[in-house]
């Protein structure tokens, strides 16, 4: 499992979770998410850029009480994500860009280590303006969902 963040004139290098799915549950626990992502990456970013919003979806580690309490305690402002709304997060479109770039490689990754290396390399190659355009489209995305009364949009 890989986590990453993008923003206007920002990107946080991908974080690879090791041994996901081992033990209880199939994914990343809230504690692991806090310790491997929020504390080392998100909090320092928000200490530098205090006037921004952090967007997550409704994945269990994101909505866990421990995660919410941690973010509140660290003064990380969250963009509210309604329980039943389409995923408007620009990072999803960024992951689509990454998938297309990986598929276009002459030699596609065959191991987890090769995939990790490819993602890290390709992540750095996406033009920042393309990321900025994705993030700045949030206003249009939200307006489209409101106009569609929560229904499907072109996003």
UniProtKB/TrEMBL annotation:
Gene3D superfamilies named among the record's database cross-references: Ribonuclease H-like superfamily/Ribonuclease H (3.30.420.10)
Domain of life of the native organism: Eukaryota
Molecular-function GO terms, alphabetical: nucleic acid binding
InterPro entries assigned: RNaseH_sf, Tc1-like_DDE_dom
Positions of the Tc1-like transposase DDE domain: 5-115
Name of this chain's protein: Tc1-like transposase DDE domain-containing protein
């Amino acid at each position: 499992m890989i986590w990453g963040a993008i923003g206007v004139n920002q990107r946080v290098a991908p974080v690879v979770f090791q041994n996901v799915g081992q033990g209880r549950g199939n994914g990343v626990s809230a504690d692991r998410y806090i310790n491997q992502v929020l504390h080392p990456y998100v909090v320092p970013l928000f200490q530098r850029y205090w006037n921004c919003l952090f967007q997550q979806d409704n994945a269990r580690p994101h909505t866990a009480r421990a995660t919410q309490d941690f973010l509140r305690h660290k003064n990380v402002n969250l963009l509210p994500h309604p329980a039943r709304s389409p995923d408007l997060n620009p990072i999803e479109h960024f992951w689509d860009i990454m998938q297309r770039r990986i598929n276009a490689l002459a030699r596609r990754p065959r191991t987890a280590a090769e995939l990790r290396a490819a993602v890290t390399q390709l992540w750095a190659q996406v033009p920042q303006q393309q990321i900025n355009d994705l993030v700045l489209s949030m206003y249009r995305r939200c307006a489209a969902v409101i106009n569609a009364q929560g229904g499907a949009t072109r996003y």
